[in-house]
Design brief:
43% helix
Length: 221
Amino acid sequence: MIDLDYLAFLENILTENRKANFLKVLENRTKHFTVAVEDVYQMHNTSAVMRSCEVFGIQELNVIEQRFGKRIDKEIALGAQKWVDINRFDSVSGCLSDLRNKGYQIIATTPHEKDCMLEDFDITKPSALFFGTEKEGLSQEIMDNADGFLKIPMVGFTESLNISVSAAIIIQSLTNRLRRSDIDWKLSEEEILAKRLDWAKNSIRDIKRIEERYYQDNPKS
């Protein structure tokens, strides 16, 4: 449950322009699609995917860290880590189970298998879009558990694109189609309130001290 009094307290610290920008951006945020990256050992690629999620309105990024340690490359992400929710998993099975429990179908992005071309992809179903390692692609476990396969049409000799480029193309295409559709793709009112609170906290320096003082002055009954 969102503490609306605390939200109002924090938003009073922000400028009117910042609060207006929050509302404008949240109008275009969605969880209808989510993105998952598997063991991407070149961290700048994961950071670039995160940036694409933020720019095109995908609220959640799922990162599977089964083999490689991770850290966010802040120079590449350019602050996107403040606005995108990152769900971390230490196994493929854990990520797949979590996303299925949330109602997503599993879509593997790959230039092979029983592919669906990007422009033909059915956007009506909530979908988790999986992107794999730079050299090996997605693991067999994900391929075996995928509900569908998606690829970008290509007409050159090269068979694949860098993961960050592929993700940007796919996310931009699908979110544009989503916003032109009649699908109920927006965040719920409760989700919007939660993001307003998170983003306000991310925007205020020394937030821990301010939070402690607020709850000292406003003890819960």
